[in-house]
Amino acid sequence: METSEEIKAMVKQKYTEIALQEKTDNQSSCCGSGCCSTEVANIMTDDYSKVEGYNADADLGLGCGFPTQFAKIKKGDTVIDLGSGAGNDCFVARHETGEEGKVIGIDFTQAMIEKARANAGKLSFNNIEFRQGEIEKMPVGAGVADVIVSNCVLNLVPDKKKAFSEILRVLKPGGHFSISDVVLIGDLPNELVKDAEMYAGCVAGALQKAEYLAIINDTGFNNISIQKEKAINVPTDILLRYMTQEKIDAYTKSGSGIFSITVYAEKPKENCCGPDCCQ
Fold it and tell me: Cα(149)–Cα(97) distance, rounded to whole angstroms?
């Protein structure tokens, strides 16, 4: 089994490669690896192209949801995007916060930070910044963010309990997050594991959905809800390379699979005993 440091080194190497290659290469699979099905270019990413604040140069086609759509960002908010990549969700969030707000992107990979900063420089924004750092140990003070977003990144973090503890620390009391991520329901067939890693968000790091939500609850968040859920369907022509049609049919009927969920939760308010915060 790989250690946390080995996983981090692998992720850093992979996403450095992604930052330096063309978007069309990234879209051929979740982590920019391997060849792809002729049926699809990308089976996970939601279309951002019609969204206010969208910047094509910042969209590497690597997400599995649209967390900023559900994040309830208000004018003047401070927003943190975890695993900010080339800056796609940061620029969308900046449109929502307006000039009076602030957006901080945090990414593990220096090449992604440089790409995001270059994209921000082209737009002459003065209220977006990008910081290199780990989600388990964010380069941000406590109680800074009104809203935290993240798009298909926490499944890559080895210590998810520590990651959600950091999210709790960095949010202001009463602040909230909207996070899109990959989770599992049931057991994947052994034959599918290699294929799933290639096509479905590096799913080797994904948790069972119930375990993922339990971590959020145990960390101390309130009002947890799933804002969106969608199945990640690996194309049949790919499945047939690893499984017989009979096994594919059994897997499809089993209810097990790979899913993208967008989860919302709030940090409890402090020093409050009124109808909005006390049970």
Answer: 13
Q: Which of 90, 85, 65 minimizes the C-alpha distance to 263? A: 65
Q: How many domains does the chain have?
A: 1
Angle between helices 160-170 and 209-219 in degrees, nearest 10 = 40
Joined together, the tokens standing for residue 9 give 């080194």
CA dist 151 and 182 (Å) reads 9
Query: Given this model, what pLDDT does residue 21 score?
Result: 59
How many whole angstroms separate alpha carbon 79 and alpha carbon 39? 36
Question: What mean pLDDT do residues 206-223 have?
Answer: 96
117 in a structural domain: yes
11, containing H or E segment: helix 4-20
Residue type, 191: E
Single-letter residue type at 118: A
pLDDT exceeds 90 at position 95:
yes
Q: For residue 124, give the CATH number of its domain.
A: 3.40.50.150
For residue 58, being part of any structural domain is answered with yes
What average pLDDT does this structure show over 47-52? Answer: 72
Tokens 């924004």 map to which residue?
A: 125
8 belongs to a structural domain: yes
To 5 degrees, how large is the angle CA 196–CA 206–CA 142?
A: 145
Confidence of residue 40 (pLDDT cuts 50, 70, 90): very low
pLDDT band at 155 (very low <50, low <70, confident <90, very high): confident
- Name the residue range of residue 155's domain: 4-266
139 vs 206, more confident = 139
Classified as helix, coil or strand, 125 is coil
In whole angstroms, give the CA distance from residue 155 to residue 147. Answer: 20
Residue 274 CA, chain-centre distance (Å), reads 34
To which H or E segment does residue 178 belong?
Answer: strand 171-185
Domain for residue 43, yes or no?
yes
